[in-house]
Design brief:
By secondary structure, the chain is α/β, with parallel strands linked by helices. It has four helices and seven strands, in the order E-H-E-H-E-E-H-E-E-E-H. The chain has a single domain (20-177), classed as 3-Layer(aba) Sandwich (Rossmann fold). It has helices at residues 29-41, 59-70, 115-121, 165-177, and strands at residues 20-26, 48-52, 85-88, 96-100, 123-127, 141-147, 156-162. The chain has a seven-stranded mixed sheet, sandwiched between helices. Helix 1 (29-41) packs across helix 2. The longest helix is centred in the N-terminal third of the chain and has 13 residues, at 29-41.
Length: 184
């Protein structure tokens, strides 16, 4: 749902035959926070959420809403821009590792941050996943946020792609719960 033909979408990957893609538009930051809460309810240890989008589009706001829904509404959730990773301990579920890879020097540096532990035992929220190159896990949820100025300054076009059969089923279920009937 791009506004110009010359602009490539932030998430450059095409949905494959085992994936489920769902596109829709949200009108406000509150709508995006609600989506993040619903997505958070679908996560478990070992899950990876790749947050794609331009600077300022709402990746950190999405991550913050998901983390607060899984921990506490009062949880302090700073952007891990300088620390590269912040770890949160929900009361009942798997830990959440929030990665901001904007400043990552190279894809191989992710392992120094404990990425292997996160992949095994935690939910990994990854901002700037394109910095991982081939290190980005294949089984994941891609969450793409794109500015929608033709609708309003706060609207966002959203694309969720469940990568692999497990995430595909979860995205399909979420889309059906919200009244959608088909995936691309």
């Amino acid at each position: 749902m791009m506004t110009t033909q010359d602009t490539a979408p932030p998430c450059p990957h095409v949905a494959g035959p085992d994936d489920w893609e769902w596109r829709f538009t949200l009108g406000s930051p509150e709508d995006t926070a609600t989506l993040a809460e619903h997505v958070g309810d679908l996560t478990d240890a070992g899950d990876v959420l790749a947050l794609w989008g331009d600077l300022g589009v709402g990746k950190s706001a999405f991550a913050r809403a998901l983390i607060r829904a899984q921990t506490s509404a009062e949880e302090d959730v700073p952007s891990p821009t300088f620390t590269l990773v912040q770890i949160y301990e929900p009361t009942a579920d798997a830990p959440i590792w929030h990665f901001d890879l904007y400043r990552l020097n190279g894809p191989e540096d992710i392992w120094e941050l404990g990425f292997d532990d996160a992949l095994e035992d935690a939910v990994s929220l990854i901002e700037w996943p394109e910095r991982l190159g081939r290190q980005l896990p294949l089984r994941r949820l891609d969450v793409e946020l794109v500015f929608a100025p033709e609708i309003s300054p706060t609207a966002r076009h959203i694309r969720l792609i469940g990568r692999g059969p497990d995430w595909a089923r979860r995205v399909e279920r979420l889309s059906l719960e919200r009244g959608e009937t088909s995936g691309d």
